[in-house]
User: Fold Glutathione S-transferase family protein from Paracoccus yeei.
Amino acid sequence: MLKVYGRPNSSNSAKVFWLLDQIGQDYDLVPAGRGFGPTDTPEFLALNPFGKVPVVQDGDLAVWESNAVLRYLARRFDATALWPADAAGQSRIDRWMDWASISLTPPLTRLRKARAAGKGDDADLPAIVTGFALLDQQLARHDFIAGPELSLADITAAPSVHRWFLLDGERLVLPHLEAYARRLAGFPGYVRHIQGLS
Assistant:
């Protein structure tokens, strides 16, 4: 059986948990990271030399980096509805997965950490607003990020979308993003693993 090393309050772990729920795949959870279990032991570092979660162990194979884990699991369990088998279909989803991880999430994470530390530094706010406005435009074209159906792109972006709505203060009105968040809330795995993130 698959082992997933992670923690429920990690957005990157939550993406993996949601995917596994979505495809109906059982797994053993090994609590790890930030108060849930050590990630600096020789045993864990043999799985992921960077000492971070999530890590999926499938037999002798250890897969780390959340987007790599999502792609591996989709291929391993033939979840072609979420990540197609053809290169063009994968590319359509991959570009949004990587955009969410590289462009959308980092400024939001920095802002959240600054506010949590009481620094009140909103230097990242313009980049955040721009990113979510672009996402709103994309969602005007489709019900989901990469097309008409849920895909790995949505699972990747979901924690940041959820956290956008947790931001204090006035937010740009993004009606397509708001409707999208309601659609995501229709998935039990989203409710179980993403909505609890702070």
